[in-house]
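2 proteins. here.
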Amino acid sequence: MIHIKYKIVPHAEGWAYKLGDVFSETFPSHDAALRAARDAAARQAVGGATQVISYEDKKGQWHEEIAPGGDRPDVDVVDKAN
């Protein structure tokens, strides 16, 4: 199972949540960023239909895969500010 962590961090004169090196939009308060991260984490748990997906890799090669709709990650929200 895949495990992902959203981290609450100061960002651009406000707060954001971060996954890896990617920041969310900037929120005016810590609490707003925390609510948004919890909302994003909850959406990760929602399954969907199994679908065929296509994507291009860094070398310009196209790939097709079957993405199972019930294959959902385990998600945590990490808030070291509190």
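next one coming up
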Amino acid sequence: MPSHPRKLRMRGGWVYVMTNKPFGTLYIGVTANLAARIWQHRNGKGSEFCKRHDLKRLVYAEQHTTIQDAIAREKAMKAWNRNWKLRQIIDANPEWLDLFELINQ
């Protein structure tokens, strides 16, 4: 039986950033299931952009109460200039660690 539509809206969401190396190519995405989506990217089943640029390292993630909030934040971050995006990553993850290992435990 499908979930009630109100429950789907309450699930929350994630905004995340994938890269290939520190200060490399960046991809900003949004998802309701962070671990599953990052697994897809790492296995070539995510976006074509990530596949083409070999973006397999999760370097930034932020959780939002609703998927709508996450989508709004994703759109805002995509409009930022590159230096703002880099600053956001560096402030949260100065060593550019692959955070997938932390969420996949």
